[in-house]
Amino acid sequence: MARVEVPAAIWRKERTGDLPVADAEVLVAAFEADWFGTEEDPPRFAATTLPPALLDRAAELTATHGLRAYEAVQLASALAAREADPGCREFACFDEGLRAAAARSGFSLVPAVPD
Predict the structure, then answer these.
(1) 29 pLDDT above the threshold of 60
(2) In sequence order, what are the residues at sequence separation of 6 or more whose Cβ sits closer than 8 angstroms to the Cβ of residue 93?
């Protein structure tokens, strides 16, 4: 999902005029270098499948927080990560509804105040 969400968020910022096109291109290229790796560095992401229990939780979050499907899967994934590692306490996104749901779920928001 990050493969789609990160470029989508960057290009949305460009379309709204919050980010110059050249900066968006640099950020997307940097993300893709992290995703695919480079000649010098291996990928920094590991693609995984979503377990049914995570999808069940995401379905519940659509009702609990009024989230859309993609946002509910993101929050369910963050909650699962926090259960696996209680030190996982920060949540990064720009979608206001998802930010609010993450805050209600006990996450600190990154960035603290959206641009």
Answers:
(1) yes
(2) 9, 74, 99, 102
Cα torsion angle, 7, 8, 13, 17, sign: positive
Separation of alpha carbons 68 and 98, rounded Å: 9
Distances (CA, A) of 39 to 23, 34, 93, 99: 23, 11, 29, 36
Instruction: Find the helix or strand (DSSP H, E) in which 19 lies.
Output: none
Polymer length in residues for the chain: 115
Average pLDDT over residues 14-30: 97
Q: 9 versus 42: which is more confidently predicted?
A: 42
Neighbours of 98 (CB within 10 A): 22
Q: What residue spans define the domains of the chain?
A: 2-36, 52-110
CA distance 11 to 106: 28
The pLDDT-based confidence of 2 (bands split at 50, 70, 90) is confident
Residue 112 class from Cβ within 10 Å (0-12 exposed, 13-18 middle, 19+ buried)? exposed
